[in-house]
């Protein structure tokens, strides 16, 4: 398993991985259709959003984005292929992203978490600091988390 920068040619594949990962939580088709635009990555997004992928034997099993400018940014997207859940890929991607964030000079990152992913982020050391409106579903709120980066 290795983590590497995403390639522009992978934008469509990453979008489909994000949709499949979101669908894993049992959301219906209407909900998923409402999320598609927010979960769509375009080739130009990949560099700007510092997109990294976890790859094994040539297959992308997950990805993450590090958004914003130091000192405060966001873990914008993090998705793992449903058939690869429970293999430590989320932890690998999270730790990689936090290492990159420190290297770029970020002091803290926020995370607009899917409610189903909140326990994972809390286990990684993030803390809930409030709620934030969904970018896809009017009236829906998401857990707003924060991860403070230290120099360890």
Kindly summarize this structure in a few lines.
With 152 residues, this protein is of the alpha+beta class.
Describe the protein in words.
- With 152 residues, this protein is of the alpha+beta class.
- The protein has a single domain (2-148), classed as Aminopeptidase (3-Layer(aba) Sandwich), CATH 3.40.630.30.
- The protein is 34% helix and 32% strand.
- The chain has 5 helices and 7 strands; from the N terminus they run βαααβββαβαββ.
- It has helices spanning 11-23, 29-39, 43-48, 89-104, 118-123, and strands at 2-5, 52-56, 59-69, 72-80, 108-112, 127-133, 141-148.
- It has a 7-stranded mixed sheet with strand order 1-2-3-4-5-7-6.
- It is globular.
- It starts with a strand and ends with a strand.
What percent strand?
Answer: 25-35%
For the termini, the CA-CA separation is 24 Å
Task: List the helices and strands in order.
Answer: EHHHEEEHEHEE
Label the CATH architecture: 3-Layer(aba) Sandwich
Structure keywords:
32% strand; 34% helix; alpha+beta; 152 residues; seven-stranded mixed β-sheet; Aminopeptidase
Topology (elements, then pairings):
Blueprint: E1 2-5, H1 11-23, H2 29-39, H3 43-48, E2 52-56, E3 59-69, E4 72-80, H4 89-104, E5 108-112, H5 118-123, E6 127-133, E7 141-148
Parallel strand pairs: 4-5
Antiparallel strand pairs: 1-2, 2-3, 3-4, 5-7, 6-7
């Amino acid at each position: 398993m290795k983590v590497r920068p995403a390639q522009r040619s992978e934008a469509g594949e990453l979008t489909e991985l994000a949709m499949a990962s979101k669908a894993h939580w049992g959301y219906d088709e209407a909900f998923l259709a409402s999320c598609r635009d927010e979960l769509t990555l375009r080739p130009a997004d990949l560099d700007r959003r510092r997109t990294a992928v976890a790859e094994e034997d040539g297959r992308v099993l997950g990805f993450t984005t590090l958004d914003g400018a130091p000192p405060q940014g966001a873990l914008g997207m993090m998705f793992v292929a449903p058939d690869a859940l429970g293999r430590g890929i989320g932890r690998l991607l999270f730790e990689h992203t936090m290492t990159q964030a420190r290297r770029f000079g970020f002091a803290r990152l926020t995370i607009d978490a899917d409610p189903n992913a909140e326990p994972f982020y809390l286990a990684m050391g993030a803390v809930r600091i409030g709620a934030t409106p969904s970018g896809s579903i009017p009236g829906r709120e998401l857990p707003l988390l924060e991860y403070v980066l230290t120099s360890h």
